[in-house]
């Protein structure tokens, strides 16, 4: 299966970002991709106003998503992205959606909020309280994660034990000391320790690192982007997963039960 990563710098106005997303969808179809992953929080960003994205939140039946759904009616491409969705009292969810054939086929509210490195996502964002679903793309089970989720190996392991062969991760990985190293190490670790593919797609621009990449089940990056806008395509091969899991049966050899999501009150 061919997958695509659409890396770009999110703009201030949602209509510009909708146009970019639709253009990347069109280009991914032209490249023969079955799955396109876009960055995190693609609705709106103002690097001089950190609350702008939250203030620009739209419901899932709002104009931003409706334009993407209309574009997706033209083909069978599955597109994954996140955006801020209102949750009342001026607060929002960071919601991942998967769209295909004009419909939202899956949604997930980000579990792990980025309260780290002197940032506090939870100031305006409510955490989700459910594990993300798996989706099927051309017979391959895909597990859904968002950005900071990458730092929690229990989540990736649970999704793989539930059947995922490919983990996808829209992200807006903030620049900082050693942060590019963290990104590459963590994406590689989640792939290697679970003997699965990981497609991690980061926003680029002045605030975030970009560096989107696809890592295979032996921890090998098969394609990667730099710090500028790009559309990457690569192959996900189910037989590669089978061969690696035969040679490196860590899932079969493990001695721990599947991780469970802790119950947490808002």
Mean pLDDT: 97
Number of helices: 7
The second-level CATH architecture is 4-Layer Sandwich
State the domain count: 1
- Binned strand content: 25-35%
User: What is the helix content?
Assistant: 25-40%
Keywords:
7-stranded mixed sheet, 266 residues, alpha/beta, 6-stranded mixed sheet, 26% helix, Nitrilase/N-carbamoyl-D-aminoacid amidohydrolase
Write the SSE topology:
Blueprint: E1 2-7, H1 14-30, E2 35-37, H2 52-55, H3 63-72, E3 78-86, E4 92-100, E5 103-109, E6 125-126, E7 134-137, E8 140-144, H4 153-161, E9 166-171, H5 179-194, E10 197-202, E11 213-215, E12 221-224, E13 230-235, H6 238-247, H7 250-253
Parallel strand pairs: 1-2, 2-3, 4-6, 8-9, 9-10
Antiparallel strand pairs: 1-13, 3-4, 4-5, 7-8, 10-11, 11-12
Task: Kindly describe this structure.
This protein is α/β, with parallel strands linked by helices. It has a single domain (2-253), classed as Nitrilase/N-carbamoyl-D-aminoacid amidohydrolase. Helix content is 26%, strand content 26%. The chain contains seven helices and 13 strands. Strands 1, 2, 3, 4, 5, 6 and 13 form a seven-stranded mixed beta sheet that branches. A six-stranded mixed beta sheet has the order 7-8-9-10-11-12, covered by helices on one side. Strand 7 (134-137) and strand 8 form a beta hairpin. The longest helix is centred in the first third of the chain and has 17 residues, at 14-30. The protein is globular.
Task: State the gist of this model.
By secondary structure, this protein is an alpha/beta fold. It is built from seven helices and 13 strands. The chain has one domain: Nitrilase/N-carbamoyl-D-aminoacid amidohydrolase, CATH 3.60.110.
């Amino acid at each position: 299966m061919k997958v695509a990563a659409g890396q770009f710098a999110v703009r201030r106005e949602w209509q510009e970002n909708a146009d970019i997303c639709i253009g990347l969808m069109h280009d991914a179809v032209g490249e023969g991709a079955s799955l396109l992953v876009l960055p995190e929080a693609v609705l709106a960003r103002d690097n001089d106003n950190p609350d702008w994205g939250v203030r620009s939140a739209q419901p899932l039946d709002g104009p931003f998503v409706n334009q993407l759904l209309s574009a997706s009616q033209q083909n069978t491409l599955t597109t994954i992205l996140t955006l801020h969705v209102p949750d009342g009292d001026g607060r929002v969810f960071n919601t991942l959606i998967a769209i295909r054939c004009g419909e939202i086929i899956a949604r997930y509210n980000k579990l792990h909020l980025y309260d780290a490195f002197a940032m506090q996502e939870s100031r305006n964002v409510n955490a989700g309280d459910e594990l993300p679903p798996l989706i099927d793309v051309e017979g391959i089970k895909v597990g859904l994660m968002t950005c900071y989720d990458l730092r929690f190996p229990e989540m990736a392991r649970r999704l793989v034990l539930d059947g995922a062969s490919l983990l996808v991760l829209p992200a807006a990985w903030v620049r900082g000391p050693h942060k590019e190293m963290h990104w590459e190490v963590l994406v590689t670790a989640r792939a290697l320790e679970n003997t699965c593919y990981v497609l991690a797609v980061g926003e680029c621009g002045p605030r975030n690192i970009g560096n989107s990449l696809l890592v295979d089940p032996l921890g090998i990056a098969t394609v990667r982007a730099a710090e500028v806008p790009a559309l990457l395509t690569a192959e996900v091969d189910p037989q590669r997963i089978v061969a690696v899991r035969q040679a490196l049966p860590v899932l079969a050899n493990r001695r721990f039960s599947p991780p469970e999501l802790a119950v947490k009150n808002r």
